[in-house]
Amino acid sequence: MNDIPLALPTLVGERTRLREWRPEDVGVVQEAAGDSLIPLVTTVPHTAGEAEALAFIGRQHDRLDSGAGYAFAIADGNDSAVGHIGLFFAGGARASVGYWIAPSHRRRGYALDALLTLTTWATGLENLDRVELYIEPGNQGSWRVAELAGYEREALLRAWKRIGGDPRDMYMYTRLTERALASSARS
Ligand SMILES: CC(C)(COP(=O)(O)OP(=O)(O)OC[C@H]1O[C@@H](n2cnc3c(N)ncnc32)[C@H](O)[C@@H]1OP(=O)(O)O)[C@@H](O)C(=O)NCCC(=O)NCCS
Q1: DSSP of 148-187, one letter per residue?
Q2: 3 CA distance to ligand 1 centroid (A)?
């Protein structure tokens, strides 16, 4: 991943800006902590305490430093954070995406716009061939967002991940880069 930029870019979509997490975004993390799913499948804390939420924000800055990937706050037109999206390296030329939108900001197109924006950028990175999403079959909202963003359902991975202590199946959705698509079509 030598040519991957070492600084977090700001990515501009039609409805969202993907930018660095800031301490003043703490309220949206506290709101997400109260969601029934987000703390189970992400590192958002299970409690709405300010210190825990600030620690979450601090950890997002470590993702780049540790080489794990890129963690962005999804900001609306007023530059207020409404959610989170990250691109994490998964070995080889693969990366996976995770996202959430705080409950009070849903159904305004933010997740779709953020995913489109991140994917356009990620599929232009020289050393990536494939971007993946892992989504529970019952999470229709998330897989509809993925499909609207051009991701293809490639597989049902049985007992892929434990959530809340239980083995859960996951759909794997993928988007390939143009170069990878051309190569895949030839084989
Ligand atoms: C899934 C999630 C990210 C969607 O965020 P969002 O900003 O509300 O999604 P968008 O507004 O961009 O939705 C775009 C389209 O996707 C579909 N969609 C989104 N949420 C949906 C839902 N709950 N049910 C059915 N369709 C849904 C709709 O077609 C929607 O367009 P419409 O509102 O014009 O009908 C959000 O509900 C969330 O954070 N959920 C909890 C965490 C999570 O599931 N993260 C993903 C883990 S894989």
Answers
A1: HTT-EEEEEEEEEEEETTEEEEEEEEEEE-HHHHHHHHH-
A2: 33
Q: Kindly report whether the global pTM for this prediction surpasses the value 0.85.
A: yes
What's the rounded mean pLDDT across residues 136-152? 98
Report the C-alpha gap between 2 and 129 in whole angstroms. Answer: 15
pLDDT digits (tens, 9 = 90+) for 74-123: 999 999 999 999 999 998 999 999 999 999 999 999 999 999 999 999 99
Token pair in block for residue 46? 């299970």
Torsions phi, psi for 154 (to 5 deg): -100, -30
Average pLDDT estimate for 122-127:
93
> Domain 11-186: what homologous superfamily?
Gcn5-related N-acetyltransferase (GNAT) (3.40.630.30)
How many other β-carbons are positioned within 10 Å of the β-carbon of residue 39? Answer: 18
Which residues make Cβ contacts (< 8 Å) with residue 26, sequence separation at least 6? 50, 53, 54, 57
Give the model confidence (pLDDT) of 129-142 as tens digits.
Answer: 999 999 999 999 99
Pocket flag, ligand 1, residue 172 (CB < 6 Å):
no
Q: Which two tokens stand for residue 87?
A: 């691109």
Q: Whose CA is nearest to atom 29 of ligand 1?
A: 144
SS3 27: helix
> What DSSP string describes 66-109?
TTSEEEEEEE-TTS-EEEEEEEEE-STTEEEEEEEE-GGG-SSS
